[in-house]
Structures are given as C-alpha cells and as structure tokens.
UniProtKB/TrEMBL annotation:
NCBIfam families (alphabetical): FdxA_Protbact (NF045490)
Classification of source organism: Bacteria, Pseudomonadati, Pseudomonadota, Gammaproteobacteria, Cellvibrionales
Cofactor(s) recorded in Swiss-Prot or TrEMBL: [4Fe-4S] cluster; [3Fe-4S] cluster
Annotated region (Disordered), positions in chain: 85-107
Annotated Gene3D superfamilies: 3.30.70.20
Keywords: 3Fe-4S, 4Fe-4S, Electron transport, Iron, Iron-sulfur, Metal-binding, Repeat, Transport
Residues annotated as domain 4Fe-4S ferredoxin-type: 1-30, 31-60
Pfam families the UniProt entry points to: DUF3470 (PF11953), Fer4 (PF00037)
Its biological purpose: Ferredoxins are iron-sulfur proteins that transfer electrons in a wide variety of metabolic reactions.
Protein name: Ferredoxin
C-alpha cells in the first residue's frame, strides 16, 4: 500500500508533506509533487499535514482521481527527490480547491 497525491496539489504545492516523511519518498515537478509507491512505507504521517487535503491512501483515492495512482508512480521515476519544505506556489491560495487542475500539470 502507498499514499498518493491527488489533483488538489497541482498549482498549490504547499510541501508541508515532505517534512514528516520518514523515508523521503516525495518527488517534485514544476507545480506538483508525487509519492514513489515503492518507497512509501504507508505510515500515514503526511496525509493530515497537507493544507490542501491532496493526499490519500491508495485505497481511498476518489473515483474521479484514480489516474493519479499511475501518475504518481510514473512521475516519481523521473522527477528529483524533495526532502525539505519550501514556499508554496505564489497563487496557491487561489488555486486551492479548484476543479479540473490536471490540465494545468507541468511535466
Ligand atoms: Fe512518506 Fe509516510 Fe506519506 Fe508514505 S505515508 S509518503 S512514507 S509520510
Ligand atoms: Fe502538495 Fe499538499 Fe504536499 S499541496 S506538496 S501534497 S502538502
């Protein structure tokens, strides 16, 4: 089992999640973070830390975000590791909660 980052991280990227991960399994793209499914130890520490409520246990990913399971696995192989919190994206508050953000994903 792994945890998965879903759509609401896109264009927010608060990064509070990376600080609590005991195995440093977060990977960073331009406007989204992902979790490496083979490295996550299922500790659940990150889920409550996300101000955007964008992190789900794999078996609780909403029906309309199922594609993020594969997306996390795919992008974790190509993006660099991130282990320290940084400032959120400048318009994070404005984008928090918006629907249809997948088309805003930058790779
Ligand atoms: Fe890291 Fe634990 Fe979150 Fe997995 S569930 S990404 S191990 S903090
Ligand atoms: Fe994204 Fe939430 Fe982490 S917005 S960067 S999953 S704290």
């Amino acid at each position: 089992m792994t945890f998965v980052i879903g759509e609401n991280c896109i264009k927010c990227k608060y990064t509070d999640c990376v600080e609590v991960c005991p195995v440093d399994c977060f990977y960073e793209g331009p406007n989204f973070l992902v979790i490496h499914p083979d490295e996550c130890i299922d500790c659940a520490l990150c889920e409550p830390e996300c101000p955007a409520n964008a992190i789900f246990s794999e078996d609780e990913v909403p029906e309309d975000q199922q594609e993020f399971i594969e997306l996390n696995a795919e992008l974790a192989e190509v993006w660099p590791n991130i282990t320290e919190k940084k400032d959120p994206l400048p318009d994070a508050a404005e984008w928090d909660g918006k629907k249809g953000k997948l088309e805003q994903l930058e790779r």
